[in-house]
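Handout, page 2. Input:
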Amino acid sequence: MADDLLVIIPTRGRPQAVPALVDAWNDTGATADLLFAVDTDDPELAAYKAHAAELKGDGRVRFTFGKRRRLCGTLNAQAAKAAKSYRYLAFMGDDHRPRPAAMPWDARIRECLSGGPGIVYGNDLLMGERMPTAVAMTSDIVRALGFMAPSCLVHLCLDLVWLDWGRGMQRITYLDDMVIEHLHPAAGKADTDAGYEEVNSSEQVSADSAAYYDYRDNGGLAADLEKLRKLVEEAK
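Output:
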């Protein structure tokens, strides 16, 4: 392990995001490790493997290839493994790009989370403080819960859960000047593709929304917050 912060990026159908994200790491001076999680049934698998071969010498960058679990399932599978060896874990979509600042974004994350269990997020220039579309947390949260987001979710509403956890723990920080830009069609910064169409379909919106409200209102969130508050108390 070259670093104590791992950024997990589940990606599908967008191999062009790989060099763009590596460029963002270079432009920002980031030292955080970067893991691209790719589906073995991805139509663009060959392009991802070509990027993996090209980046083999970059100690910050790794690829994992596995069966399709959708975004939440892939993130949880990789986070559960990484929580054993990394102090901090982060999620970004393949359409997020960290931007340069006086202090590198990954250094801000380490500084903010160094005091114990917690969650931090920056400004995605779309949702801002309202929603952590990209997020970082101490890995003890993942170890305590066994996941980085509830497994009842597929793609949407993970950010709402992270807000619920952070507020419930009273351990969440928003850094307005830490820009991790979300290049999303809703911001007019990307064209709609098959991936966006799938995850933003009315069926997926309905399914993930219902799953989130059930988790929030019917005991799932309360049980998880009990574990997280205990984690905070033990760290004092």
